[in-house]
């Protein structure tokens, strides 16, 4: 593992930005302080709060716009920009700052004015002026920042920046290469609708003497939807430029510092249109520069099946297993990992199957996990993956399990081997970030997740389950879940469980298992009743006791009183669940159960949360007090003293989210639950959009959620699901994509069609993808209208979607075939490839 020391400077920045979280003074007091450092602390803490809190201090923010300290002015302007149109009354205070003596303050004022008053014209003029004059500053560091920041702001304006088109075209001839490069990038961000006005100038910029400008022009040509043949050749040349083999170049993953690696990354963004670059990219997997190798592997994967000639080079790159990280970045980069992902994306199952036999465990593990991404190869891969479940390395077994889980029911033949992993749990901690907080996974937990996705029958699962129990020396939570799910013959499992009941280390777990299999067993009740009060109780104690009560056993009043005190002292969710079973009409017990559900930690209490949620979902409809308590949680707000200490409102948001999720899953008080989610999204509190869209895709989305999901279609925020504390090892998702999936589940064709002509091509693309899955005439007609969309991504997605329509409904093929064949004349290779693949899928 190699670690870059430059991350130390990031540590100092992090400390400066977060130290105020431990400040003694309340937030409002700091904002109103006469000490400018207190004010800065308060302003920087505002980034962690919801929109409503910002609104409550808006007037103070307006006052701070005129503060004598430039940093205070900048931060106040940024917070007003976050408030948006609700801060329109700040316009008069903001406007003079467009002429502030501090250039950073001028940019912040422009951004704020654009967002609170929609004055794009004033903002664009300020940004262009910063591009023109920023390069003349004496301070080199600030000069570069100012020009790049102004360019980024103009790019974020998108087509609206065309108001300054003549000035931007003129800047392509600026004497400073950094200005020319930023101007080219901004012209690209104008999009396909301005292709006619800018294509000639951008094509000319491909011959600029500065590589940075040629790179920006090549990327921009793709963005405006023009043919990219010349741009691809330019990028290949830039990618192959010699780089001094310094220690820094050989070991650094900071791709933005290297022209070659950035050019390689740009080739990947072209996807299938970069097919001519495949030979060069394959060769670059042996580059002496780490950043180039990393990006080359990723680019080949994005190119897709056209990159299959590079499969041998990618297979060789699997051998580079060393990770590279930096302090406090919480991520690790590895060429071998990127190569494994790329092999999955190009469908190179043979290369991955060969890698399953590699002598290095890391390579076997990565190949196993990636094979799950190639469902078409399932008949060839399920057997080898099943064999890998016996690998001597637990980390390899876990990744083989993940690969099988991705294949779903197609991996049913692996059921016996997965069952055998359930019985003897083994935890493994890995460090996908290279250091810091690790990711602890369990062989039994991953096996159970895979079984849930494969969904075998009891007949398929029980023989291996019974056999495994005969030789088991431990029991896992997942084994008991399997006993409950598959219900094997009690006589067949009772003997091995009784054997484990006699062993000290497994007594409580065995008693818990018998509570599900034979709840009237004479020995288990005393064991479980006593184990609950152990100094460090096992989950099995409370879970088993709860199951005995669910089976009809009672607890005397004295024991219940002791249990109630214990539940309160420990905030034990399962104990409150047991007490609720005994007294479902007791208001205090009901409130305590709901509060325990709200406070349960999603990582450390996930098993207790799963069991409690399972029961509560069954009871909400029949128990008025439980329903009332959960509906009450939708409006939960922190008490004043807690709100002062935890001004982010995080606890409040978590409680409301959990209640909403339960109510939606139970189809109870759905409109109120959706309204709660909408409020969290509007307040942008605790990543409300992300949490909401996850709820509405994991549960069956209610029709009442259609307006909210339609709103979320516009959200392009990326996030990770699962993985470690920082998302490493998790799955990257996009909020808008998940919203589109939920709308597709609801068959909300009208909602999707309403976004088909969005100005954002990413929104149009995700809508088109989902329309391909809807069996409706309106969906087909809408797709036909997008075959000539200006954006190449939308046209490519349209071809794929039309292919899906023809595959699911052969009667449509005579109508769709000419359209797909006509796409052979499209100016972009990736669109032609998508149309060709759609036709081949019909064969």
Structural class: mainly alpha
Q: What summary fits the major beta sheet?
A: 3 strands, mixed
Continuous helix count: 50
Give, in spatial order, the strands making up the sheet with the most strands.
1-2-3
Helix content: 55-70%
Instruction: Round the mean pLDDT to the nearest integer and report it.
Output: 89
Distance between the termini: 48 Å
What is the overall silhouette?
Answer: globular
- Assembly level: single chain
What are the low-pLDDT stretches, counting only 5+ consecutive residues below 50?
1-23, 643-648
- Roughly what fraction of the amino acids lie in strands? under 5%
Alpha carbon gyration radius: 30 Å
Got a strand count? 7
Structure notes:
It contains 50 helices and 7 strands. A hairpin with a 6-residue loop joins strand 2 (324-325) and strand 3 (332-333). Helix 34 runs antiparallel to helix 35 (573-582) and helix 38 (624-633) packs across helix 40 (650-666). The longest helix has 18 residues, at 140-157. The radius of gyration is 30 Å and the shape is globular. Mean pLDDT is 89; it is low at 1-23 and 643-648.
Quick structural gist:
The chain is mainly alpha-helical. The protein has 50 helices and seven strands.
Topology:
Elements: E1 2-3, H1 7-18, H2 27-31, H3 36-45, H4 51-56, H5 58-64, H6 70-83, H7 91-94, H8 103-117, H9 120-134, H10 140-157, H11 165-171, H12 177-189, H13 195-205, H14 211-223, H15 229-239, H16 247-251, H17 259-269, H18 278-284, H19 290-303, H20 311-317, E2 324-325, E3 332-333, H21 335-345, H22 349-355, H23 361-371, H24 378-388, H25 394-407, H26 415-423, E4 427-430, E5 439-442, H27 443-454, H28 458-471, H29 477-486, H30 490-501, H31 507-517, H32 524-531, H33 539-550, H34 557-570, H35 573-582, H36 587-599, H37 606-619, H38 624-633, H39 640-645, H40 650-666, H41 670-683, H42 688-698, H43 706-712, E6 718-721, E7 731-734, H44 735-745, H45 749-753, H46 761-771, H47 777-784, H48 792-808, H49 813-822, H50 829-840
Parallel strand pairs: 1-2
Antiparallel strand pairs: 2-3, 4-5, 6-7
Helix pairs in contact: 3-6, 5-6, 6-8, 8-9, 8-10, 9-10, 10-12, 11-12, 12-14, 13-14, 14-15, 14-17, 15-17, 17-19, 18-19, 19-21, 20-21, 21-23, 22-23, 23-25, 24-25, 25-27, 26-27, 26-28, 27-29, 28-29, 28-30, 29-31, 30-31, 31-32, 31-33, 32-33, 33-35, 34-35, 35-36, 36-38, 36-40, 37-40, 38-40, 40-41, ...
């Amino acid at each position: 593992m190699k670690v870059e020391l430059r991350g130390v400077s990031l540590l100092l920045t992090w400390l400066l930005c977060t130290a105020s979280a431990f400040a003694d003074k309340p937030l409002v007091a700091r904002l109103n302080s006469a000490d400018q450092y207190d004010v800065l602390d308060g302003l920087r803490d505002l980034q962690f709060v919801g929109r409503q809190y910002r609104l409550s201090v808006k007037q103070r923010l307006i006052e701070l716009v005129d503060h004598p300290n430039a940093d205070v002015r900048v931060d106040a302007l940024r917070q007003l920009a976050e408030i948006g149109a609700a801060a329109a009354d700040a316009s008069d205070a903001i406007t003079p700052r467009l002429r502030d003596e501090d250039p950073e303050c001028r940019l912040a004022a422009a951004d704020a004015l654009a967002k609170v008053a929609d004055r794009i014209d004033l903002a664009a003029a300020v940004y262009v002026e910063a591009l023109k004059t920023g390069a003349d500053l004496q301070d080199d560091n600030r000069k570069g920042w100012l020009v790049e920041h102004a360019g980024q702001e103009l790019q974020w304006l998108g087509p609206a920046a065309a108001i300054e088109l003549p000035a931007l075209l003129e800047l392509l001839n600026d004497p400073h290469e950094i200005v020319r490069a930023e101007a080219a990038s901004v012209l690209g961000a104008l999009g396909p609708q301005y292709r006619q006005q800018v294509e000639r100038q951008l094509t000319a910029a491909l011959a600029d003497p500065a590589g940075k400008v040629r790179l920006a022009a090549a990327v921009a040509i793709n963005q405006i939807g023009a043919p990219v043949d010349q741009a691809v050749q330019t990028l290949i040349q830039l990618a192959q430029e010699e780089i001094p083999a310094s220690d820094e170049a050989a070991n650094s993953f900071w791709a933005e510092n290297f022209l070659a690696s950035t050019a390689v990354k740009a080739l990947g963004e072209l996807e299938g249109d970069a097919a001519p670059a495949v030979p060069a990219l394959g060769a670059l997997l042996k580059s002496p520069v780490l950043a180039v190798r990393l990006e080359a592997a990723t680019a080949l994967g994005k190119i897709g099946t056209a990159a299959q000639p590079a499969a041998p080079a990618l297979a060789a790159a699997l051998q580079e297993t060393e990770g590279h990280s930096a302090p406090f970045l919480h991520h690790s980069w590895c060429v071998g990992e990127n190569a494994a992902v790329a092999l999955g994306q190009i469908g190179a199952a043979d290369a991955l199957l060969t890698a399953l036999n590699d002598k290095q465990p890391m390579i076997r593990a990565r190949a196993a996990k990636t094979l799950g991404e190639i469902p078409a190869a399932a008949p060839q891969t399920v057997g080898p993956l099943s064999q890998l479940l016996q690998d001597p390395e637990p980390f390899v077994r876990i990744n083989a399990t993940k690969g099988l889980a991705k294949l779903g029911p197609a991996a049913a033949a692996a059921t016996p081997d997965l069952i055998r992993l359930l019985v003897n749990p083994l935890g493994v901690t890995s460090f996908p970030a290279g250091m810091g907080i690790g990711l602890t996974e369990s062989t039994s937990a991953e096996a159970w997740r895979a079984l849930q996705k494969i969904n075998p029958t009891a007949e398929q699962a029980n023989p291996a389950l019974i056999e495994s129990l005969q030789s088991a020396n431990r029991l896992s939570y997942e084994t008991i879940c399997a006993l409950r799910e598959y219900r094997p013959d009690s006589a067949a499992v009772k003997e091995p469980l009784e054997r484990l009941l006699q062993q000290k280390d497994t007594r409580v777990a065995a008693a818990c298992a018998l509570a599900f299999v034979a709840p009237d067993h004479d020995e288990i009740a005393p064991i479980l009743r006593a184990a609950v009060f152990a100094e460090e109780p096992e989950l099995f104690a409370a879970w088993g006791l709860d199951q005995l009560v669910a089976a009809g056993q009672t607890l005397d009043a004295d024991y219940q009183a002791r249990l109630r005190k214990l539940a309160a002292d420990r905030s034990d969710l399962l104990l409150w669940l047991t007490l609720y079973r005994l007294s479902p009409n007791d208001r205090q017990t009901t409130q305590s159960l709901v509060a325990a559900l709200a406070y349960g930690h999603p990582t450390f209490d996930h098993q207790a949360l799963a069991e409690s949620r399972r029961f509560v979902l069954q009871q909400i409809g029949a128990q008025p007090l439980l329903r009332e308590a959960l509906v009450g949680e939708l409006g939960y707000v922190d008490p004043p003293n807690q709100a002062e200490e935890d001004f982010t409102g995080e606890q409040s948001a978590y409680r409301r989210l959990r209640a909403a999720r339960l109510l939606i899953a139970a189809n109870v008080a759905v409109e109120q639950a959706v309204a709660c989610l909408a409020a969290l999204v509007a307040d942008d509190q605790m990543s409300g959009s992300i949490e909401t869209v996850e709820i509405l895709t994991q549960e069956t989305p209610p029709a009442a959620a259609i307006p909210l999901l339609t709103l979320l279609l516009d959200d392009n925020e990326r996030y990770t699901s699962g993985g470690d504390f920082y998302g490493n090892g998790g799955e990257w998702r996009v909020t808008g994509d998940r919203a589109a999936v939920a709308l597709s589940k609801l068959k909300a064709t009208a909602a999707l069609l309403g976004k088909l002509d969005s100005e954002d091509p990413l929104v149009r693309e995700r809508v088109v993808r989902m329309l391909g899955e809807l069996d409706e005439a309106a969906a087909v007609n809408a797709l036909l209208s997008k075959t000539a969309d200006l954006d190449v991504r939308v046209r490519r997605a349209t071809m794929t979607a039309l292919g899906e329509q023809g595959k699911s409904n052969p009667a449509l093929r005579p109508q769709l075939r000419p359209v797909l064949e006509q796409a052979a004349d499209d100016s972009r290779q990736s669109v032609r490839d998508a149309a060709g693949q759609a036709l081949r899928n019909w064969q």
